[in-house]
C-alpha cells in the first residue's frame, strides 16, 4: 500500500491545500492529512476546528484520513507506516525551503518526499494571507473550501 502524509498546520485549510490533496489522492492508496501540533505557535483556529474543516471537506473521500501529531514528521511517518510525504510548491521560495526539509528527512529516514506544483490559479493562496484577510474583515470565501467559511 502506498501511504502518504500531507503535513501542515492548516490554519486554515485553503483552496491551495485542497488542490494538492485532491491531486495527491490519485497518486496514493491512502493519504493522511497530518495536522502538526506546535505549542509555540498561535493559531487562529483551534485544533478541533481545523480537524473539522478538513474532515468535512473530504467526507466523501475514503482514501483520506485526518490525524494529528507532535514532533518530527519522519517519526510520525514511521509510527503510522507512511513511506511518502506529500508537499505542495507555490513558488521558487517554497521549493528552496521544502528541498532543505526533504534532504534532511532523507538523511534521517527512508521517507521520500513527493512535490506537486499548486495549480496556477491557486498558487498565490497561503494560510497566512487568508488569516490576514479574515482579521481585516475581507471576503475570504474565494480562498478556502466551503467547509472553512464561518457563518
TrEMBL record:
Where is it mostly found? cytoplasm
UniProt cofactor(s): Mg(2+)
Assigned EC number: 2.7.7.3
Q: Which domain of life is it from?
A: Bacteria
Which residues are annotated as site, described as Transition state stabilizer? 17
Localization, UniProt: Cytoplasm
Q: What class of enzyme is it?
A: transferase
Name the residues that bind ATP: 9-10, 17, 88-90, 98, 122-128
Catalytic activity from the UniProt record: (R)-4'-phosphopantetheine + ATP + H(+) = 3'-dephospho-CoA + diphosphate
GO BP field: coenzyme A biosynthetic process
> Which residue range or ranges hold the Cytidyltransferase-like domain?
5-132
* The protein's assembly and partners: Homohexamer.
Q: What does this protein do?
A: Reversibly transfers an adenylyl group from ATP to 4'-phosphopantetheine, yielding dephospho-CoA (dPCoA) and pyrophosphate.
Annotated family: Belongs to the bacterial CoaD family.
Q: What is this protein called?
A: Phosphopantetheine adenylyltransferase
